[in-house]
Amino acid sequence: MRSETLDKLLCLLDVRLNAMALCEVPAGKRLRLPAMDSILVHYILEGRGVLRTSDGSTAQFGPGALVFVPRNCGHELSQSGGEQGVHVWSEGAVPLGDGMMKFSFEDGQAAIVTACGTMSAECGGLDLFEHFREPTAENVSADPHIASAFELMLKELDSPRFATRPLCEALMKQCMLLAIRAQVERGELSLLPLGGVRDTRLLKALLAMVERPAEDHSLDELAKSSGMSRSLFAERFAEAFERPPIDLLRQVRLHRAANLLRSTKLPVQVIAIAVGYTSRSYFTRAFRSAYGADPKSFRETSRADAAK
Length: 308
Description:
This protein is an alpha+beta fold. 40% of the residues lie in helices and 25% in strands.
């Protein structure tokens, strides 16, 4: 499956690493990691084994695998899943600097070594992993680009320095795109933006929203861009995105507004118009409902946080 529309959507992919770590799991042991409020991805550097989540889902892995773990999902790494000893991540945590950690234990040679990180990934303001429910492993060992990317990432982790975090974010985005490409070329969709999309005609309407949020996108126009009738489009869209098209458009507009408030000095009225709101008061009410603060207060808080 190849799609020019999908390519355009992926150009908007924004990957953020919230934390990074190097994990070493001794032979005969399990490493237990807690549930986290963001996606966690492991890149398996050495060893073979199984990742088992707290709800019983599993994913087999080997060297060169990227393993994605859903948010709010505790899990364990081990060689077979039957090991007796358990190590909790906090027992072997060693800070590397700049929010990066190493989890290492002294009771045996490491049987599994992974580079891992908690991450978020958005595409035009939409959560890439919104519908992601079960761990997924994608073996990318045959791709030399990913191997070189993680080799550089490990060097950065071994000795964090200026720009380590943004560099690792760029490398992680590269690896994400290559993993998505591998799945798309096999006709799989689990790592696509908003993986609940099964009818790829909907991507044209989605692209129109994220590229031109200020336009007056009617239900009829969005359905036409997808090559569907109004009723079929509304049904398929709600099934894929778990909300009506206009509700998702509102989310995209307000996300764009939040980014403009953080990154520019544009007046609130100008930002409101730029994202499709002709009434400042209506924009303020919608923004407060989504972000818990009016636009002016949101901007002030964002700047104060950035200055810390």
